[in-house]
Amino acid sequence: MLGVCRLESGTPLPHWLYDSSNFFSLTGTADETSIVCREDLIPAGFSSEKGFRAIKVEGPLDFGLIGILASLLDPLAEAGISVFVISTYETDYVLVRQGNLEKAIRALEAAAFTIRKN
Fold it and tell me: Which letter does DSSP use for residue 104 in this model?
């Protein structure tokens, strides 16, 4: 499972981030640094939300495509599922709480998306 962690802007990157070999995302702004990684790597004492699962959009996606995220997020919003979204160079990931994963899959399948479970 994944966790989302917040650091103060300018905080040095923690050493444990580099232990997340399968999936991590790092976003820094003037206001904060956000890290998404395996939840078991986030030490106690860090501001974090845990218990997320990622739904990957099959890519690579062309930068000219329009409405990909909207088409995914609309059925999830209608189902009352909150999300955390990460975009990479090649694709997008929609993170949902573990407790909402099956509901999210059903909502996306009802909207004609093919879900491939790992």
Answer: H
- Give the tens place of pLDDT for each residue, 13-45: 988 888 767 889 999 999 999 999 999 999 999
The C-alpha atoms of residue 86 and residue 83 are separated, in whole angstroms, by 10
- Residue 85: beta bridge partners? 94
**Mean pLDDT of the chain, nearest integer:** 90
Name the nearest CA neighbour of 2 among 34, 32, 42. Answer: 42
Judge whether 117 lies within some domain.
Answer: no
Distance, CA of 116 to CA of 17 (rounded, Å): 28
Domain that holds residue 22: 2-110
Global confidence as pTM: 0.88
Task: State the CATH number of the domain containing residue 45.
Answer: 3.30.2130.10
